[in-house]
Amino acid sequence: MPAPSRRERDLSRNSVMITGAHSIIYSKNPEADRNFLRDVLQLTNVDVGQGWLIFGLPPAEVAVHPSDENNLHEFYLMCDDIEAFAAQMKKSGIACGPVDDQGWGLLSRLTLPGGGELGVYQPRHARPTPMSG
Asked: Which end of the chain is more exposed for a tag (fewer CB within 10 A), N or C?
């Protein structure tokens, strides 16, 4: 196999392979949950057609944990102050579970208007520097 050309080396050194992440929340009432993300959490969004909204998120991170099974994934939102977040959700009529100290962070779960649960935590672990696209 021939060695990579200078152009190929420069491209691989100057480009980012991953430019973002796309998470999906499955819901029995997607309209209610989209309204929550737009109106309560005030996430930026774009309508990609027929009212189908895709929401912007702040910088994200991913971790790989050991498991006896593959294809298990979890999605959490993060905040700087879980108690203040839970209080704001209560004012908005969104139920939050008790805050549980996990060591690596303070974890709660909110109940989405569609009935599903979403984990939210205040991290105590080190955070990576966000990638730039």
From this structure: N
Dihedral sign, Cα of residue 96, residue 69, residue 25, residue 29: negative
The third-level CATH classification (topology) of the domain covering 27-123 is 2,3-Dihydroxybiphenyl 1,2-Dioxygenase; domain 1 (3.10.180)
pLDDT score, position 133: 64
Q: How far apart are CA 55 and CA 112, in angstroms?
A: 16
CA distance 85 to 88: 5
pLDDT, residue 14, reads 58
- How far apart are the C-alpha atoms of 13 and 53, rounded to whole Å? 34
The structure's pTM equals 0.81
